[in-house]
Amino acid sequence: MAQCEHPAVTTFREYIRIKTVQPDPDYETCTKFLKRQGEELGAKVHVMECVPGKPIIIMTVEGRDPTLPSILLNSHTDVVPVFPEHWKYDPFSGHKDEDGEIYGRGTQDMKSVGIQYLEALKQLRAEGNTFLRTIHVSFVPDEEIGGTGGMMSFVETDYFREMNVGFGLDEGYASTSEDFLVFYGQRHSYHLNVRCSGQPGHGSQFLSNTAGEKLHKVINSFFSFRDQEERRLRENPDLQLGDVTTVNLTMLQGGVQFNVVPAQLSVGFDIRIPPALDPADFENMVQGWCREAGEDVVYEICLKFVTRELSSVVDGQSPWWDAFSQACKIEKITVQKQIFPAGTDSSFIRQVRR
């Protein structure tokens, strides 16, 4: 099987074997691999660090008119932690089974995309094509932990500004149908911690005004809203996950021992809200739930990422979208336009666009 394997597949499997897994990604080996790929492409390769130890690799194929706004093809190099005992094969082996299925952490998110960029450019250049605009292919670190050491810092540099990016592509989801998914924005992200304080005492008593009672009310309010949003998604076939708010309880803290009613309990939620819901309205709703739960119930926003910028995906409104849309039509590709339900580095690029 290896003898007839396409070189692109071999390259992809080599990339999978590099353990760029958080919290201790092997960026050094990854950088060496990507520099070699850039040299094979015939691109100018630049490596920089906005944060020490977190390399950003930019491959540049200069266009016939480098004064025009450029095209950016972005992907991230890091992958999320993995539990090998739950895998059929070693998640960093790049194993390919008899059906050609490739197993590995990062196969979807998003090492496959980075290799697709490179292989497409290699093929186009091998066919003798040149490009009107300059094309940059960027490989950035730390997207899986918020992007602060990667794209968030990179977009603030003079180097990025001098790239003069006019249009960019980043990650999405693999489609389960014959349609292709085009994401033109993403949901706002919140990490909320709600702290409930109340009457402490012995576990043998019926105490009033306890932290537990208040916590119960808070959780009920959040989950009632969660059920409402889940029902909206289920009952409306026109809605996608990115169009509704998801609420998930991810942390619980409190208590000292089994027979003591604690003076304080807290609960943490991961919440993603669509662009259609104003963040101020959402926060007012949370404040209302806390008031309804009783006195001494307060919430803290541990993380808030709001991105109000949306890319234009309407024909005739953006020359970039028109070019992309026309190419899809020529290839008879049907696209579905959606809001990305999670977070990507695209949000940082959208926020600095001029």
In short:
By secondary structure, the protein is of the alpha/beta class. 32% of the residues lie in helices and 25% in strands. It has 9 helices and 13 strands.
Rg to the nearest angstrom?
Answer: 24 Å
Distance between the termini: 49 Å
CATH topology of the largest domain: Aminopeptidase
Mean pLDDT: 95
Number of helices in the DSSP assignment: 9
Helix content: 25-40%
Oligomer: single chain
Task: Determine and state the CATH class of the largest domain.
Answer: Alpha Beta
Structural classification? alpha/beta
Report the sheet with the most strands, covering strand number, pairing sense and barrel closure: 5 strands, mixed
Beta-strand percentage range = 25-35%
What's the CATH architecture of the largest domain?
A: 3-Layer(aba) Sandwich
The stretches of 5 or more residues where confidence is low (pLDDT under 50) are none
C-alpha geometry? elongated
Extended strand count = 13
Number of separate structural domains: 2
The CATH homology group name of the largest domain: Zn peptidases
Give the H and E element order: HHEEEHEHHEEEEHEEEHEHEH
- Across the major sheet, the strand order is 1-2-4-3-5
Question: What does this entry look like structurally?
Answer:
The chain has 354 residues and is an alpha/beta fold. The chain folds into two domains: 170 residues, Zn peptidases (Aminopeptidase, 3-Layer(aba) Sandwich); 120 residues, Alpha-Beta Plaits (2-Layer Sandwich). It is built from nine helices and 13 strands. The strands form four sheets. The chain has a five-stranded mixed sheet. A four-stranded antiparallel sheet has the order 9-11-7-12, with helices on one face. Strands 6-13 form a two-stranded parallel sheet. It is elongated and about 80 Å long. It starts with 6 loop residues before the first helix and ends with a helix. The model has no long low-confidence stretch (mean pLDDT 95). This is N-acyl-aliphatic-L-amino acid amidohydrolase. It is an enzyme of class 3 (hydrolase). Keywords: Cytoplasm, Hydrolase, Metal-binding, Zinc. InterPro entries: Aminoacylase-1_M20A, ArgE/DapE_CS, Bact_exopeptidase_dim_dom, N-acyl_aa_amidohydrolase, Peptidase_M20, Peptidase_M20_dimer. It holds the Pfam family Peptidase_M20.
